[in-house]
């Protein structure tokens, strides 16, 4: 197995071009440039799908809020709301279990938790509707 090697975008472009110019011989390209077959294959596939932008290394980088499109902002908001809903559902399960064990007022706790879940679902639904309207 080839050892890991950090590459620049320019190096990845050179590797991809070599591979394409040599009838997509991934094995030969990997041996020549000292990287793995699967990495060469992945770069060529990304290049085919996205062009040179596909060769960017975006790991750990997020766009700043002001650089996002409206659609991307809505997608982030939906993701945030879904995560919040997931946390609330965990909280609900915890409270249900603790109420069942303590013998407390289960009915009022259920009502409160049901309202909370309903409110979160409505918020997510509205965000999804807003995004759909923007895509039309």
Helix-strand layout with pairing:
Layout: H1 9-21, H2 26-33, H3 37-50, H4 70-102, H5 106-135
Helix pairs in contact: 1-2, 1-3, 2-3, 4-5
Description:
With 136 residues, this protein is mainly alpha-helical. Helix content is 72%, strand content 0%. The protein contains 5 helices and no strands. Helix 1 (9-21) packs across helix 2 (26-33). The longest helix is centred in the middle third of the chain and has 33 residues, at 70-102. It starts with 8 loop residues before the first helix and ends with a helix. The model has no long low-confidence stretch (mean pLDDT 82).
Brief synopsis:
The chain has 136 residues and is mainly α. It has 5 helices and no strands. It has helices at residues 9-21, 26-33, 37-50, 70-102, 106-135.
Radius of gyration: 25 Å
Strand content: under 5%
State the end-to-end distance.
Answer: 49 Å
SSE class? mainly alpha
Low-confidence runs:
none
Overall morphology: elongated
Main beta sheet, described?
none
* Count of alpha and pi helical runs: 5
Based on the model shown, name its key terms.
136 residues, mainly alpha, 5 helices, 0% strand
């Amino acid at each position: 197995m080839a050892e890991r090697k950090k590459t620049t975008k320019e190096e990845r472009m050179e590797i991809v071009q070599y591979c394409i110019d040599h009838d997509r011989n991934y094995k030969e390209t990997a041996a020549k440039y000292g990287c793995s077959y699967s990495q060469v294959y992945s770069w060529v596939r990304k290049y085919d799908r996205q062009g040179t932008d596909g060769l960017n290394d975006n790991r750990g980088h997020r766009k700043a809020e002001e650089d996002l499109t409206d659609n991307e902002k809505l997608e982030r908001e939906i993701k945030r709301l879904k995560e919040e809903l997931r946390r609330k559902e965990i909280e609900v399960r915890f409270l249900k279990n603790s109420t069942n064990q303590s013998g407390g007022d289960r009915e009022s706790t259920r009502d409160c938790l049901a309202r909370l879940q309903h409110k979160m679902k409505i918020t997510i639904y509205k965000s999804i509707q807003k995004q759909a309207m923007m895509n039309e």
